[in-house]
Amino acid sequence: QVQLVESGGGLVQAGGSLRLSCAVSGRTFSTYAMGWFRQAPGKEREFVAAISRSGDITDYADSVKGRFTMSRDNAKSTVYLQTYSLKPEDTAVYYCAAKFAGSRPYSIYNDPGDMNYWGKGTLVTVSS
After folding, report:
1. Could you give the count of Cα atoms lying within 13 Å of 115 in the half-sphere of its Cβ?
2. Cα angle at 122 between 12 and 111, to 5 degrees?
3. Residues 6+ positions from 119 with CB-CB distance below 8 Å
4. In the list 33, 54, 69, 95, which could disulfide-bond 105, CB 3.0-4.6 Å?
């Protein structure tokens, strides 16, 4: 079993920044591609950012491209989402997720249904 624990959420004013972290345990972290997803009240969970097992490839939703940066530190078994220029519409619970990709170091996954493991989420609230 893979366990994921998000942290770093909170209340921030529009235009501000937050750094979200996801600590992963239970399996060899470097064999998993990782993703960030978010879910606002009354909406479906949506893709935010993804990173390959190797860390060489990243992808972002159009709504956050240029404002969010995803990274991973395999030595610390941790992934990050650095956010900039936050908008009220970014308000959501942010979830970290993992997809086994041991033989595919450059694969990216952006469909929630593809992910094998999920964290419990961390709430990001952006005020006007």
Report:
1. 26
2. 115
3. 4, 5, 6, 22, 95, 96, 97
4. 54
Q: How far apart (Å, rounded) are the C-alpha atoms in residues 22 and 109?
A: 17
Q: What are phi and psi of 52, to 5 degrees?
A: -75, 165
Q: Cα separation of 71 and 33, whole Å? A: 11
Kindly report, residue by residue over 18-58, the tens digit of the pLDDT: 999 999 998 789 999 999 999 999 999 999 999 999 899 99
pLDDT band at 73 (very low <50, low <70, confident <90, very high): very high
Q: How far is residue 70's CA from residue 57's CA, in Å, rounded to a whole number?
A: 10
What's the 3-state SS for 19-84? EEEEEEECCCHHHEEEEEEEECCCCCCEEEEEECCCCCCEEECCCCCCCEEEEEECCCCEEEEEEC
The Cα 102–Cα 65 span in angstroms is: 27
Cα separation, 91 vs 55, whole angstroms: 26
